[in-house]
Design goal:
By secondary structure, this protein is α/β, with parallel strands linked by helices. The protein has a single domain, classed as Rossmann fold, CATH 3.40.50.720. It is built from ten helices and six strands; from the N terminus they run βαβαααβααβαβααβα. The chain is globular and about 65 Å long.
Length: 271
């Protein structure tokens, strides 16, 4: 442990169970000295094990629907009251698509469900930052991070409307990052993580194929959940005070590798 976050206070959205990225980040942030408030939507809290995590890291749990402005304002006010100070970091780990869950083809989506997914997966990031901004709840030189995926830049069949949601998420990070940087030097970034064996990731059609393909392409292999947590903590720390408005790839080199020797050998064997 390096005490990277000693004295810092943060809100972590989306810790569902011990397989989720947000859960790993919360554990590591606690180990590095941070005080944390956990939150998730009420329905997710009933399905997950967030109470177990709260007890483990001595973190209060404040339910909040991230698509509801009143819930977000309540969460932020209660968090700052609990901390007795402003907030140093926030992790937005929220994403859901009914179209993906129901394996609907991209050319035949239900648009009402598309709008719900956009609200949950992307606009909730804007809502969260807008509440933080209007309540002046972030400490100077704080850090806000959201989770993205390379499908925001490239087409991945099966990822469906979540790719559009992630594209919007990254754009919101850039736009809000500009204004937050000017206001109080708050950094806003997204992390594009390798396919990771989480509860949410495993629900995507063809996930194992995504995972195995990325493992074969990436020179360093896929980044796992514990490695993601370590990387995320560097963005919460004071070591990255000038990193903002970026989508940062944490994927073992997958994003910049055209083809690997292993994949070439596989297709050469087919000749």
């Amino acid at each position: 442990m390096y005490n990277l976050l000693k004295g810092k206070k943060g809100i972590i959205f989306g810790a569902l169970d011990s397989n989720s990225l947000a859960w790993k980040v919360a554990e590591r942030a606690h180990q590095e000295g941070a005080q944390i408030v956990l939150t998730n939507a009420p329905v997710a809290m009933r399905l997950g094990a967030i109470n177990e995590l709260g007890q483990k890291i001595n973190a209060p749990i404040i339910p909040a629907d991230a698509t509801n402005n009143e819930d977000l304002n309540n969460l932020i006010n209660k968090a700052t009251e609990h901390f007795g100070s402003k907030i140093d970091f926030v992790l937005h780990s929220i994403g859901m698509s009914i179209n993906v869950r129901k394996s609907r083809h991209y050319t035949d989506l239900k648009h009402d469900d598309f709008l719900k997914a956009m609200d949950i997966s992307a606009l909730s990031f804007h809502r969260t930052m807008q509440s933080l901004y209007n309540l002046d709840a972030m400490a100077n030189e704080g850090s806000i991070v959201a989770l993205s995926y390379i499908a925001a830049q490239r087409t991945f069949p099966g990822y469906s409307d979540m790719a559009d949601n992630k594209s919007a998420l990254e754009s919101i990070a850039r736009s809000f990052g500009y204004y937050y940087g000017k206001k109080s030097k708050v950094r806003v970034n997204t992390i594009s993580q390798s396919p990771t064996k989480t509860t949410a990731g495993s629900g995507i059609k063809g996930f194992n194929a995504f995972y195995n393909y990325a493992e074969k392409i990436s020179p360093l292999g896929n980044a796992n959940a514990d490695e993601f947590a370590d990387y995320c903590l560097t963005l919460f720390s004071d070591l990255t005070k000038k990193v903002t408005m970026q989508n940062l790839f944490h994927d073992g080199g997958f994003s910049f590798t055209g083809v690997s020797e292993e994949v070439m050998e596989f297709f050469m064997d087919k000749e």
